[in-house]
Amino acid sequence: MNSKKIIVSLHDEKFRHRGDEILRIEALSDAVFAFSVSLLVASLEVPQTFEELTVILKGAVPFFATVALLFLLWYQQNIFFRHYGLNDFKTVVLNLAYLAVILFYVYPLKFLFSLLIGSWTGIELFPKAAEKHLPVLIKEDFASLIMVFSAGYFVIWLLLFLMHQRALHFGKALELNRYESEYTRKERRGAVWNAAVGLASLLFAAMRMEWLSGICFLLIPVLLFINQRRFNKKIKSRK
C-alpha cells in the first residue's frame, strides 16, 4: 500500500478530497505546529544530574498530553484543507487566527496539564516553585485559570465553526454532494456546540462557579455522541 492510500484511509473515504496539493497556508500551518512542539521541547533543560533527569521524566505525562492535544488540533485543520482545499482570503485569515491562538496557548496548556496531573497523582511537577516555597496556584486564581483555558477553547472552536461555514458558503463551487453537505453541517454543528461549552465554562468561572465549569467539559463526549447520531440518522433517511 502506497503512502497516498494510507493517508486517504485516515479520512472519511466517502468525502472527496479537493485539496490534493499542499497549499502555502498549510505549509505555514505545519511549521507553526512544529514550532509549538519545539517550544515544549526547548522548555526542557538538559539534565545535569540524575535528580534533574528524574524531574524531567516526571513531567513526561503533561508533556505528551499537550503534544497529543496539539496533534488533534492539527488533525482537525488538516482534514478541513484536505476536504475543501479552500484558499480564499477570509479562510486564510481564519486559519492564521487559529494558528495564533494555538501558538499562544502552548505553555498555558502544559501548565494546566501539569497542575491537574500533579494534583491527581501527588507528583511534584513544579520543582522550581517548590524550591522557592512559592504557591503554584492560589485559590483566588483558580477561576482565572479556568477562564483562560475556556476562552482559548471557545475561540478555537469558534474559528473552526467559521471555517466550516465558509465551506458551506462555497458549497456549489465545491460541488458538495448530499453526504458531503451533511458531513460539513455536522462538523459546523459540532464546532459551535464545543464553542458553547467553552463559553458556558468561561461564564461560570467568571461567576466563581468553578464546579459548573468542570461539568461543562464533561458534557463534550455526550454532545459528540448526539451530533454523530443526528448525522447518521440524516444520512440514512436520505438513502
Unreliable runs, pLDDT <50, ≥5 residues?
1-10
- Whole-number average pLDDT? 84
Structural class: mainly alpha
Total strands: the figure is 0
Gyration radius (Cα, Å) is 20 Å
* Integer count of domains: 2
Terminal Cα span? 32 Å
Discrete helix count? 12
Question: Main β-sheet: number of strands, strand sense, barrel status?
Answer: none
The string of secondary-structure elements, in order, is HHHHHHHHHHHH
Percentage beta strand: under 5%
What does this structure look like?
The chain has 239 residues and is an all-alpha fold. It has two domains: 20-136, no CATH class; 137-239, no CATH class. It is built from twelve helices and no strands. It has helices spanning 3-9, 24-42, 50-58, 60-84, 89-104, 106-121, 127-131, 139-169, 171-174, 178-206, 210-218, 220-237. The radius of gyration is 20 Å and the shape is globular.
Summed up:
This protein has 239 residues and is mainly α.
Key features?
239 residues, disordered N terminus, globular
Topology, element by element:
Layout lengths: L2 H7 L14 H19 L7 H9 L1 H25 L4 H16 L1 H16 L5 H5 L7 H31 L1 H4 L3 H29 L3 H9 L1 H18 L2
